[in-house]
Amino acid sequence: MGLEDYKELVATCASISTMGQMLSGTLICKDICKKGSSKGFDPMPFLGGIGMCILMLQYAFIVKDPAMINVNVFGLLTNTAYMAVYYYYSPHTKDTLTLMGKVAAAVSVFLVYAQVEIPEKLEYRFGLIVTALFFLLIGSPLIHLGEIIRTKNTDILPFPLILTGTLVSFQWLLYGVIINNLFIIFQNVVGFLLSVAQLSLFVIFPSKSKGKTGDEGKTD
């Protein structure tokens, strides 16, 4: 009995875990609502999630993978809802709209590319694009590394998303091995390592908001 015999089981587990990870965004939205402002929260996990889900959905249609299609439709819907909450509580809606416009423009360029690329080369080349963007998204919290080291505070990092992302990356890595898709394998090997690196920051610099409520736990 080879790994191929567990393809559907692994795909189902990975899909359910990914949907669970996407739902963890509700915890961040809860904090935003409790604070009454999205100031001090990074919008990129949500906004980047929308963009990545759209592009991964396009890739899933290219490779005709039902598990990836279902997960990314769900991710697109949930991240759109989270971004709506972020925008509603944003004290700087103009800046938020500008960022949304930039992401929308970038995604549009890649979608147009997918329509004009030579079909025989599309899967490989579009796979390279989504892999590179996936690394940028999953590693984006590390842009705050300097601030985290300076303040010795990890409050700005989305812990629920990082923790669940670590578990999800491992499961999709296994799925990639089963279907022998090098892009999925490579994405999730790097994704897993980046997530572990980010989790280590919570051990080195525990959250200062632990045990606090309200505004005390967030950095403006």
Descriptive terms for the model:
220 residues, mainly alpha, 9 helices, 76% helix, 0% strand, globular, disordered C terminus
Number of strands: 0
Strand content: under 5%
Radius of gyration: 18 Å
Specify the number of helices: 9
User: N-to-C terminal Cα separation, in Å?
Assistant: 55 Å
The geometry reads as: globular
What class would the helix/strand composition place it in?
mainly alpha
Mean of the pLDDT scores? 84
Low-confidence stretches: 211-220
Residues in helix, %? over 70%
Which H/E pattern describes the elements? HHHHHHHHH
Q: How would you sum up the major sheet?
A: none
Q: Topology, please?
A:
Layout: H1 7-23, H2 25-35, H3 44-63, H4 66-88, H5 93-116, H6 119-139, H7 145-151, H8 159-179, H9 182-204
Helix pairs in contact: 1-4, 1-8, 2-4, 3-4, 3-5, 3-6, 6-9, 8-9
Overview of this protein structure:
The longest helix is centred in the middle third of the chain and has 24 residues. Helix content is 76%, strand content 0%. It is globular, with a radius of gyration of 18 Å. The C terminus is likely disordered. It is mainly α. The protein has 9 helices and no strands. The protein starts with 6 loop residues before the first helix and ends in a 16-residue tail after the last helix.
Short summary:
The chain has helices at 7-23, 25-35, 44-63, 66-88, 93-116, 119-139, 145-151, 159-179, 182-204. It is mostly helical and 220 residues long.
